[in-house]
Amino acid sequence: MLKVINYPYLLSPTPEEQPQVVEDTVQATYADLIIDYLAQLGIDTVFGVPGGAIEPLLNSLARSERNGGPRLVVARHECGAAFMADGYYRETGKMGVVCSTTGPGATNLITGVASALEDEIPMLVITAQTPLPKFGKRALQESSCTAIDTVGIFRYVTQFNTLISHHEQLEGKLVSAIMAAHRVPNGPVHISIPSDILRAPATINGHIHSDLLIHNFSMSDDSAITRLGEKLGRVNNIVMYIGNGVGKASKQIMEFIELTGAAFVTGPMGKSWVNEKHPQYRGVYGFAGHESAKNLLQHKDVDLILAVGTALGELGTSGWKNDLLNTKLVHIDSSIEHFTRSPMANLHVFGNIDVIFDRLLISVREARKWGRKWDTIPGNKQINANGGYATLAVPEKCYSNDIPIKPQRLMSHLSNYLPENTRIFVDAGNGWSWATHYLTRSNNEGLYRIAMGYGSMAWSIGAAIGSAIANRTAPTLCIVGDGSYLMSAQEITVAAQQKLPVVFLVLNDAAMGMVMHGQKLGKQESIGWELNEINYAAMAQAMGVEGIIIESPEQLEALNLNALFAKNGPTLLDVRIDRNEVPPMGDRIKGLAANNSSATPGG
């Protein structure tokens, strides 16, 4: 007698909800075991592309979806599926899950997984293998160690990587993978499973405590926190640099800033976690940043710089300049590995950032009761076009009525008219520069999303879709250059199929703008940047997506963004921008030239 599959996470359906079942019973498999674990973790979506060897897992997902459990969303390319899993995590805080078939399905995932590693995104990557008896026989799409060794390839882009060679290994290795994905720093993990093991009969006990698999242990270096408290008591002023890693500690950090009067800046990704219209904010330091941020860190009276939640990479430090990296620095982070880039700091404080600032706030509140105050380093308080205090480059262009549309005007418009709860995904390329410098937000809940770790073009398209899958009612905007869009335009058909109200804004200037301007600024040969003129709105219409051409500021002003976010499907905005406007990326070019490497950044 076959065993009936057991889904312990599902509610019993009402009689009218009962699915039509052809067979009386269904044998539980190891593929079902994987889906059961995902369900107990609260993960309701798996992204991927079908294929023969992964079919047993898809069978399980089909049965799961009929019963209200995790379901499959099919991407058009495996890399796009990985980007969707990335976006799903950014919206839900739950591990993204992506699957592919063997061979080219697995290798197509590599860029998306590498991007997740660099941006510290927890992701479970499941790839199939041909059945074990076919290993070494040159089976179609074989990717075992005797062919194109995909497990060997994934070794370099994951935190945990393994082949399941026997069905009794699967559960233990799955648990190890899930725990490794949530180890600080977070990252992707990979398990590769032969199709015959996925099909093998399994017993599902449903006895795990899922919270233990992803538990974030509270920790802090008490002695370092005490030393930092002593330093705070001896200085007259504090400056803060906020990185992308502050996450859920942003509220404690903002309270600390207000109690101490600290002027603060962010890295290009850290701006997601602050109110950019706060009076103590001095703008972005690093790539496409603001003079006001540079001036703050260079101010002669600065006593102490607290750099919080930052990997101190190239783009966030203006090429590791000593404005930030000097002996006034206290580096506070939850990843010890990040401290390797701040050996000149006078103190490293390791631990959960929220725990550290909870401790610091106790001391600061007590000090304030006794009349202790700190000075605020003065800075430029001139209000810019977007209501913030950071000095913009050429701010008058934010008001320009010229045609083609000035990118500065576009970003200023978005700053003023986007709903505050908009999820904003910005792609690699010129979009980075324009959005970093000119797109300002007061929301500090991590809704401005950018992937600068690896800088993968087309990331924003998949990531925006993954986020919208997780939260269909939230307004979601994808800002993508035309060069990046051409790499992955087909993924918008997923948004159409899923009826997601994502707005895809294509910066149409018929150029790979960052390459073009990088070559000009770096005095390099002008080559490879020009694209043909394309009507992206018509292209979208052909794929079943409404397309709108925006050629003038008047058309931009007439656009009803709220109505687009309320639709039952996606929209593509083909915005014709002035490609002759030079993005604020000069420091990046200088840094490349100084290192005797090519002065052309990636597209």
Give a quick set of tags describing it.
single chain, alpha/beta, Rossmann fold, six-stranded parallel beta sheet, globular, disordered C terminus
**CATH architecture annotation of the largest domain:** 3-Layer(aba) Sandwich
Radius of gyration: 25 Å
Total domain count? 3
Decide which structural class fits the backbone.
Answer: alpha/beta
Q: What is the C-level CATH assignment of the largest domain? A: Alpha Beta
| First-to-last CA distance | 59 Å
Largest sheet: 6 strands, parallel
Helix content: 25-40%
**Extended strand count:** 18
Summarize the structure.
This protein is α/β, with parallel strands linked by helices and 603 residues long.
Tell me about this structure.
Helix 3 runs parallel beside helix 5. The relative contact order is 0.10. The model is unreliable at 1-24 and 596-603 (pLDDT under 50). Helix content is 34%, strand content 15%. It has 603 residues and is an alpha/beta fold. The protein starts with 29 loop residues before the first helix and ends in a 9-residue tail after the last helix. The chain folds into 3 domains: 15-213, Rossmann fold; 222-369, TPP-binding domain (Rossmann fold, 3-Layer(aba) Sandwich), CATH 3.40.50; 395-594, Rossmann fold. It has 23 helices and 18 strands. Helix 2 links the parallel strand 1 and strand 2 (71-74). The strands form 3 sheets. Strands 2-1-3-4-6-5 form a 6-stranded parallel β-sheet, with helices on both faces.
